[in-house]
Amino acid sequence: MYFETKAIKSLTGHSQTVVTNLNKMKTNTLILILFLVTSNSFCQNLSLSELLKAREMTIGEVEEYLTKKEWKFFGGEEPTKEDFGVLNFAFNVGLIDRAESWIYYYFSNDSETKRIAIQILNEKKYNEYLNQIKSWGGKMIDSKFKDKEIVKIYKGSTMTYVISTGNAEGIPLLGESKQTVYSILAMTNEDYMQSKE
Q: Between β-strands 180-188 and 159-167, what pairing exists: parallel, antiparallel or unpaired?
């Protein structure tokens, strides 16, 4: 009987400890959920319309526009006679130069042609962009699997979007992981047709 009574008292004390620990876990879980919701609200902050607006800007204008929206200039390359120049901007850069999102602004000294691309890790943001393209009348005109990526081409009334889905493996600035990476390159329909020639 002594052992049974001691065991019941021991279990009762243990139950109170378990309840206290569960309450602490609930509080910690709530804090974690609030953190995740808050941090998710800081995900890449440009709409597709804003991205396309940036494509039409000059080099100086695009730098000021993206900097104001908390994107960081991360380098670039000058154009050549054969290739576009490119400016790289990163959003939410970590300690080791990895970012949540990247924008590539393509320009030429020989023409007014400009392109813009975005690389994102956020599936929700990718779906938002894709749904916007479709709502503007974009239709898929081609799809293929190339260089370990799914590539889809959507054509609207004035713009063509080359959308690719791959993984971050081997992309140093996104991290060495198999996390899915979504890329969208936007250019005019005329530019797209010329690029195919």
A: antiparallel
- Are the C-beta atoms of 81 and 110 separated by less than 8 Å? yes
Nearest of 103, 121, 124, 125 to residue 185 by alpha carbon: 103
**How do the pLDDT tens digits run along the chain, 197 residues long?**
433 334 333 444 444 444 444 344 444 333 333 333 333 334 468 999 999 999 999 999 999 999 999 999 999 999 999 999 999 999 988 766 678 899 999 999 988 999 999 999 899 999 999 999 999 999 999 999 999 999 999 999 999 999 999 987 655 544 555 789 999 999 999 999 998 87
Q: Which residues are CB-neighbours of 69 under 8 A, at least 6 positions away?
A: 45, 46, 50
Extract the tokens encoding 176: 């060495």
pTM of the model: 0.74
How many angstroms separate the CA atoms of 195 and 106, rounded? 14
